[in-house]
Amino acid sequence: MHRYSFATIVTTVNDQPEATHLPFVVKEEDDKLFLWSHFAKANPQSKHIFDKASLVIFTEPHAYISPSNYEKDTNVPTWNYIAVHAYGTATVLDNVEQKVELLKNTIDTFEPGYYQQWQSLPDEYRSRMMNGIVAFKIEVTDLQAKKKLSQNRSEIERENIINSLGKSSDTNEREIAAYMGDLESRSKNQEQG
């Protein structure tokens, strides 16, 4: 969640799902997990986020898995991925101090060096920018890890996939190979231990 913090927030309005892609700051406070972010005030979803539970989907890395990695020709391509689903209810951060804290946390997370420039901007400009957002934080009440890393394939096929993706020029593919390799190592250690 920290590493792939640009996530999708999904809410429902009149039984219709709505989604927006936002950067999130992930923070622990008093043994609770919170997701901090903001909408542009013009985003219609910002008016309904506080009515019901929200789902925030953090996804990456992911990789196409070619059937050339399998022992038999009677196979089809698939996709491996890692994702986290975070559920919770949003609380509005509507006073100036809370918005300042959100923006400071966001800047610290994504570009700490920008903070000095932000502070040097005219107060009127910063105030106008803060008035144009709907800031919120979500207390995470349910956290679910999702993954498909060829767990259903044979050891030889998983090794083929790890080797193939590990040599890729694509960062996502190399990351999936690393996660798969880590799972293989842990699995072998558990069998030996």
Structure, briefly:
With 193 residues, the chain is α+β, with helices and mostly antiparallel strands. It has helices spanning 96-110, 114-120, 123-131, 155-166, 171-192; strands at 6-13, 16-23, 25-29, 32-40, 54-65, 78-92, 133-148.
Report the CATH superfamily.
Electron Transport, Fmn-binding Protein, Chain A
Largest sheet, in brief, is:
7 strands, antiparallel
Percent of residues in beta strands: 35-45%
Q: Class in CATH?
A: Mainly Beta
CATH fold label: Pnp Oxidase, Chain A
Let me know the number of strands.
7
Q: Output mean pLDDT.
A: 94
Low-confidence stretches: none
Total individual domains: 1
List the total number of helices.
5
Strand order of the largest sheet: 2-1-5-6-7-4-3
Gyration radius from CA atoms, angstroms = 21 Å
For the termini, the CA-CA separation is: 31 Å
Architecture per CATH nomenclature, i.e. the level-2 architecture: Roll
Order of helices and strands: EEEEEEHHHEHH
Give the fraction of residues assigned to helices. 25-40%
Shape: elongated
Structural class: alpha+beta
